[in-house]
Design a protein that fits this description.
heterotrimer; A alpha/beta (about 230); B alpha+beta (about 400); C alpha+beta (about 210); A: about 230 residues; alpha/beta; Beta Polymerase, domain 2; 3 domains; five-stranded mixed β-sheet; two-stranded antiparallel sheet; 4 helices; about 20% helix; flat; C: about 210 residues; alpha+beta; Alpha-Beta Plaits; three-stranded mixed β-sheet; three-stranded antiparallel β-sheet
């Protein structure tokens, strides 16, 4: 099978204007992935499926991943003009200092597709797509028109992560019931507070047990146990 | 259709969508919810069907009744602690699930497994395959109305295999036996002898089931030509396992990926021709025979030695950041685990690729236009387990 | 001939039916609870704490004195459904090697949550927790009756020998080896001290 760089070059040749980036995989599994932009996703997918040598006709797995925003502390070298008084005369000079800045890297949701070929018996080729952010711009093109096996798996990602797949023939919740709000697999999901009886509570559950102490049955832990 | 030429006939305008069936005349459609409380739905599973008399016009599968959010639980516990939870995914084939997860983690960190452990894994996986296919055939026949007799014959053999599992791992179904780098404990010589005795009795059982069922006219009339699945739709919909091979596609992960030590065993891959229920039944029957061949070879050749790689860590296992996708041929299809690690003891993302869920994609296509009785049979021939569909 | 397949099938069922009157192996039903099959040696149901019969540190009931558990809390951390709750004691007592160890003041296992995965047994470095084979434990009290505490969990080493003879013998051999090593080291240290005392002050009585 072709290497990931060769596939990237072929995609860029076949779909003009497509932005394809290699995301290296640091583990020894060697399964590097290609990050594609949502605008050309359908064209790239059709190319990967129909091209004679790649022939990636079997979509094996569709996964959703949540990358919440994180605070990054970094040292930045800054050039600044400073006015200093030297011998009674005001002078301005250039100064370079290093200062520590904190910035928030925006979070995003990601979809990873694992492609194999039944005709040529090779694979996997891994492609990824990222949303712009986690709150309002969460739509990505659905690859169900290209590979039918994405149908249920994309529905599940919509259910559990909240990514809206445009072009999906039947996008509704799969595992949770239809009236459910919120998306359970997100990292900031808060479970509903339905505490009943927790005799061997640890960590966060123990904190909730203490909070519900008045209403609990059979729990005899106190503040001192936390 | 031969297995070598795959026909791709794609037009983007809906070639892979289910057909639209028109009801006869001015019929008012009867909407029935088959399940979740139903004797033939293999677990808590619902199908919303719209019927015109006996014919199915629309069918939508609804599940999620057994959803336990296994993937989120795995993000909160260590890699080792997820192993007993994988038993509960496809609860018929717990040892296959264990192997798939161990394979994915071993791919992530590059861990090798000693020879004896590889042989034990193959023996247990093939025993699992035999008992799973026997039960699948038994349940299919039960739904046809043979109220339990072939099922009980299958369960009689299954009991012998489950006794083997219990004497080795301590539990009949939730075995929790594989670890990253080998197996939890060694199999004694007495156990291997008991396994050989069971394997010697298996061909007789398969012959018995074959004589009982394969040329049965009622079975042939109800299964042949029913629930036909096209080859190109099967590939495009991600179908795997016996359902795919019944359509004629030669894709068995044991031969394609050659994971473990499967390249040392000589076995054939049975393929169907038409892709109907009878083909799936025959493929499962023949796969049982091939599994017995593999078992005989493995039990013959198993070497001595350790069953756990001494460099493998049980506690404090922190794989370096990265990701891996490992897959095996479980009795239901392609079972894959996708792991993203960020260097902490818990996985960052743990995803199970369930064969039963993806195989259900084409349930609608196969059932539309047929009778209600056929829907039950077609659904039984897909051979799903709800623990895997819902996780 | 039409119906040939059905007749072949009927012949098979007839063979099984007639055979069940004649051969033992066709009668696979066990009339539980009047007949019970003995569990396999490797069977695992719920954990129990092992105590040794020799009363080590006096005081209290026999099981409390001989409990092997030192409250290291490794099983609590590794348990997948987190069904173990341990509270360490404030004082120490001597273990079989003569070293002072903490002991669990409180050791609860909720067996309605426990999934019998046996990971607690695998990770315990002190051979203190093992799997029991008792499964007829149903009760009518939903809150608390399935929460086993120390006294209910503690069972003797003799019981362990009865349910898992091979494992128990291996564990005993391992513990005896450890004790022999520690004793040998203590004896060597005592001999060296005695020799030193004899060398420096020949008139004094040496050690033991």
């Amino acid at each position: 099978m072709k290497t990931i760089e060769e596939i990237k070059t072929e995609i860029e040749a076949a779909v003009p204007g497509a932005a394809v980036e290699i995301v290296a995989n640091p583990s020894v599994s060697g399964q590097h992935s290609l990050r594609i932009a949502p605008e050309h996703a359908l064209a790239i997918a059709m190319f990967l499926r129909d091209e004679a040598e790649l022939s990636l006709d079997y979509l094996s797995n569709v996964t959703g991943v949540d990358w919440p925003e994180k605070e990054v502390t970094e040292k930045v070298i800054v050039n600044r003009t400073v006015t200093k008084t030297v011998d009674g005369v005001e002078q301005s000079a250039e100064e370079t200092l290093e200062e520590t800045r904190k910035r928030v890297e925006p979070g995003y949701l990601e979809v990873v597709y694992h492609l194999y070929s039944m005709a040529k018996k090779h694979g996997p080729v891994v492609i990824r797509m990222r949303t712009a952010n986690r709150s309002d711009q969460v739509d990505l093109p659905s690859l169900t028109p290209v590979w039918r096996s994405a149908e249920f798996q994309e529905r599940e990602i919509f259910d559990l992560y909240g990514i809206v797949f445009t072009g999906h023939p039947d996008l509704r919740r799969l595992l949770m019931w239809d009236g459910f709000k919120d998306h359970p697999m997100r990292r900031d999901y808060v479970e509903p507070d339905d505490f009943e009886y927790e005799p061997t509570a640890h960590d966060e559950v123990l904190a909730r047990v203490i909070a519900h102490r008045a209403a609990s049955v059979g729990c005899d832990k106190t503040e001192a146990d936390v | 259709m031969s297995g070598t030429e795959l026909v791709h006939d794609h037009k983007m305008e809906g070639w892979n969508r289910p057909p639209v069936i028109e009801p006869d005349g001015e019929a008012e459609l009867l909407e029935v919810a088959m399940g979740p409380h139903h004797p033939s739905t293999h677990g808590v599973f619902r199908m919303d069907v719209a019927l015109d008399g006996e014919r199915v016009i629309r069918l939508k599968p609804v599940f999620g009744y057994l959803h336990r959010n296994h993937e989120k639980i795995a993000e909160g516990v260590s890699y080792l602690a997820s192993m007993p939870y994988t038993d509960r995914l496809d609860y018929f084939c717990s040892l296959s699930n264990n192997w798939a997860y161990a394979l994915a983690v071993e791919k992530l960190v590059g861990q090798t497994v000693p020879e004896r452990a590889e042989y034990l894994r193959v023996i247990l996986a093939e025993l699992t395959r035999v008992q799973n296919h026997a039960s699948a055939i038994g349940f299919l026949i039960q739904e046809m109305g043979a109220s339990g007799t072939p099922l009980m014959y299958a369960f009689r053999e299954r009991e012998k295999i489950l006794d083997l599992f219990e004497s080795l791992t301590g539990s009949r179904m939730m075995c929790n036996y594989m670890r990253f780098g080998g197996c939890r404990m060694d199999a004694s010589a007495a156990w291997l002898d008991a396994a050989r005795k069971v394997v010697v009795g298996l061909p007789k059982f398969v012959d018995e089931i074959d004589n009982l069922l394969s040329s049965n006219e009622i079975l042939m009339a109800r299964c042949q030509g029913v629930g036909i699945l096209r080859q190109d739709l099967a590939i495009n919909a991600g179908i795997s396992g016996p359902m795919l091979r019944a359509t004629g596609v030669n894709y068995d992960l044991r031969k394609v990926d050659k994971y473990g030590i499967y390249d040392r065993f000589k076995f054939r891959v049975p393929l169907g021709e038409v892709g109907d229920i009878y083909d799936r039944y025959m493929v499962r029957m023949l796969e049982m025979r091939e599994s017995i061949t593999i078992l005989e070879q493995a039990l013959n050749d198993i070497p001595g030695g350790p069953v756990m790689n001494p460099t493998a860590k049980l506690r404090g296992f922190r794989p370096k950041a990265g990701e891996a996708y490992g897959r095996i041929e479980s009795p239901k299809g392609e079972l894959g685990f996708y792991l993203i690690s960020d260097g902490t003891p818990n996985p960052y993302r743990y995803r199970v690729r369930p064969p039963s869920l993806v195989n259900l994609t084409v349930l609608e296509d196969m059932c539309l236009g047929s009778n209600v009785a056929d829907v039950v049979l077609i659904f039984g021939s897909v051979d799903i387990v709800l623990g895997e569909v819902d996780r | 001939m039409l119906g040939e397949g059905i007749l072949k099938g009927l012949a098979e069922t007839a063979k099984n039916f007639a055979g069940s009157f004649v051969s033992e192996e066709r009668l696979t039903t066990v009339q539980y609870p009047e007949e019970r099959i003995a569990p396999f040696e490797a069977a695992r149901v719920f954990p129990f704490l092992v105590f040794d019969q020799e009363n080590r540190d006096g005081g209290g009931p026999e099981w409390e004195a001989g409990l092997r558990c030192v409250a290291c809390q490794i099983c609590e951390k590794e348990c997948p459904p987190k069904c173990i709750y341990i509270e360490k004691s404030k004082d120490k007592k001597l273990d079989y090697l003569g070293k002072g160890q903490y002991y669990p003041a409180r050791f609860d296992i909720d067996i309605s949550v426990c999934m019998s995965c046996q990971i607690c047994v695998e990770v315990c470095p002190f051979e203190a927790i093992k799997m029991d084979t008792e499964f007829e434990l149903s009760t009518t009290d939903r809150f608390g009756a399935l929460l086993l505490d120390r006294s209910q969990l503690a069972k003797s080493n003799e019981h362990y020998h009865k349910i898992h003879p091979t494992d128990a013998t291996a564990v005993d051999a391992r513990l005896a080896d450890e004790k022999a090593k520690v004793d040998a080291k203590a004896k060597a240290a005592a001999d060296a001290a005695a020799a030193k005392a004899a060398a420096t002050q020949p008139t004094n009585e040496g050690g033991d």
